[in-house]
């Protein structure tokens, strides 16, 4: 779907393309369209599925009137610039596709240059507007270079989705400077990237940082976060790193950052990602569950500034904002985690 001032071109491959005028009635959007196609799929003559939602339509001669059923009007109000880290597969890829399908400019980040190139090419061929960025989030200089590259190309950023994460490393669990990779990738690097990008987000209306967290949570050992203590168990390291992410989200939102909404989101437990396959040996549930909530967190009114959700934790397993682990909003503990992160980054 691509929008002009008040016109839309809506492709439903392989059989039809609608183009015409948006007519809005209350909370529903109706598209009065010219129907451009070679053959109508009779099975979809009354209803169908587009990447952004369900729809129904009826045909009047060569015209078609299409009523979108599950389309949030605000999603179409303007094109946003959105950075998604870890966009080469899993939830990140599904989220990036969904956002591009809505007409937003999606900045795709990946660690592997070949993979992110293939993803960017496929999304571009499908009509998406994308840019690609390569960075290894276990390396501080790469994170800084990623932020610099985004700032060099864009004077503003609407949404940052810190999705990239690691559970099992498949190799060394510590960085060359002795820190646990799970903490570096899942906690410290998203914090650093956020801090470096805030200058181009703070003046943007309804700017948001969406931190992809987990229902997994364990009390943070500050010595493990600093690298003084090794965590042998993968799950324990992952759970601590995700709670630490929740904690810096809360602290930054409540103590430092008033102009940008920050939320931590559990996208859903045991979704069909590479991480779940490697960590638990199961196929998992539909990644679309996770992508749907991340799109909502990026675009919908329920996460907007007026909703006063900044700093909160959204548990998609429960389908609502929740306190989660009691340390999520423990101000003293959150401040201690922040001090350790900033000491590592020399901020």
Automatic annotation (TrEMBL):
Top-level taxon of the source organism? Eukaryota
Which GO molecular function, any one, fits this protein according to its record?
Answer: oxidoreductase activity
Question: Which keywords describe this protein according to UniProt?
Answer: Oxidoreductase, Signal
Organism, as annotated:
Porphyridium purpureum
A Pfam family annotated for this chain is adh_short
Keyword match Transferase? no
Q: Member of which family?
A: Belongs to the short-chain dehydrogenases/reductases (SDR) family.
UniProt entry tagged with the keyword Oxidoreductase: yes
Annotated signal sequence is 1-19
State the protein's name. Retinol dehydrogenase 13
Under the heading InterPro entries, the entry gives: NAD(P)-bd_dom_sf (IPR036291), Sc_DH/Rdtase_CS (IPR020904), SDR_fam (IPR002347)
